[in-house]
Amino acid sequence: MPIQQQTKKVKGVADIVFCLDASGSMGPVIDAVKNNIDTFVRSLKDANPNNPVDWQARVIGYRDLTCDNEPLIDRFNFVITADEVKTQLDQIIADGGGDEPESTLDVIALAAKTSTWRAVSHRTIVIFTDATPREIDTKSSANTGITDIALLKQFLMEKHIKLFLFGQQCPQYDQLKDLPKASITQYASAITDLPQVDFKALMDQIGKTVSYEATSGGVVL
Q1: Which DSSP state fits 194?
Q2: What CATH number is attached to the domain comprising 27?
Q3: Could you tell me the mean pLDDT of each successive run of 10 residues in the chain, 221 residues long?
Q4: How many structural domains are present in the chain?
């Protein structure tokens, strides 16, 4: 008889990974995220002041794994203050990217598989990109075991990882919409529309959502 995997309920613990497209056109968006990290953290704390969130966050920058000299900026650990997150964001420089598609699916897989998530936590990945995604790269999949979008979705569901994605309207991102823990926002022209977003309001809303889901509890494998 197979051994059933035990489940635990957790309240108030949240691990967040911000994944930022760091290609040349993304400078205004990177700056907007950095300028509103304080808002995000304040929302985590203020949304439920009687049950504050024990949170940690880290940043990953990415471009095109097939052509850029520094396609992946994945050298940061989880930290616990807004200033530490901003220090990580300061090192994400908008540059390169090659042609229009970027390695967004790869970086979701890498963030999901290689982040040092706490054993029991509410896990969130937040993606900002103005590009369509490349197919998952063979070198990336060798490190994660995730070779296509179906396996990516399966892993996100198994690990109860919530996905916020803000990016270009395209069929690949449409495929992520049926994930039970996903919020996919697409723009007709992300390269012009995304920098015009009210990031203060957006980061406030993301923080409140993470806080609500973390403090309301739930089953985590």
Answers
A1: G
A2: 3.40.50.410
A3: 45 93 96 97 82 93 88 95 97 83 96 94 97 92 92 95 97 95 96 97 96 74 45
A4: 1
